[in-house]
Amino acid sequence: MRGRTWLGAALVLGAQLRALWLAAAVEVHTAKEVVAVNGTNQRLKCTFSSSSPVSQQLSVSWNFQPEDLSAHEPVFYYLKEPYEPPSGRFKARVTWDGNIERHDVSIMVWNLKPSDNGTFTCQVTNWPDVYGTIGEVRLRVVQKVSFSEIHFLAVTIGSASVLMIIVVTAAIICRQRRRKARDRRMEAADTE
Question: Three-state SS across the chain?
């Protein structure tokens, strides 16, 4: 009977330790979708949280999956220092834009092209937290910002400006009318 008690306790302890180990995984956070204009530069933001302090073995890998679902391509790697890709579509077009101490592992992609449409993945390992989520950012490169977006922005800014002008003008008119009414009352009181 005593052996079974120890075995049960060991199994319960093992399950609790496994749950703690899984809870200590790295969590990666990214924007789900980014829209950028052809020929511009875009920062792909990726941050992480870890139950462990940032270690010397922290590594970051960015990969790319084109829209046509062809093979994944390496984009960027970080281990103690940033490593740009030696070849491929992102050679000389990707730079490190993160800050490890602030848990930011973002990159900058330069001179975007329609062929850059696809999904970028950001994976972080921070020993002993080697497991965790993989962040995904879907990038859409468009030829130009659509008219509706520009129109909506212009209407919003214009409406806010007109509203402010109306409010200020109304306040000035009310103040002047009160001042004239007060001056009339004072004149009427002086003449009596």
Answer: CHHHHHHHHHHHHHHHHHHHHHHCCEEEEECCEEEEECCCCEEECEEEECCCCCCCCCEEEEEEEECCCCCCEEEEEEECCEECCCCCCCCCCEEECCEHHHCECCEEECCCCHHHCEEEEEEEEECCECCECCEEEEEEEECCCCHHHHHHHHHHHHHHHHHHHHHHHHHHHHHHHHHHHHHHHHHHHHHC
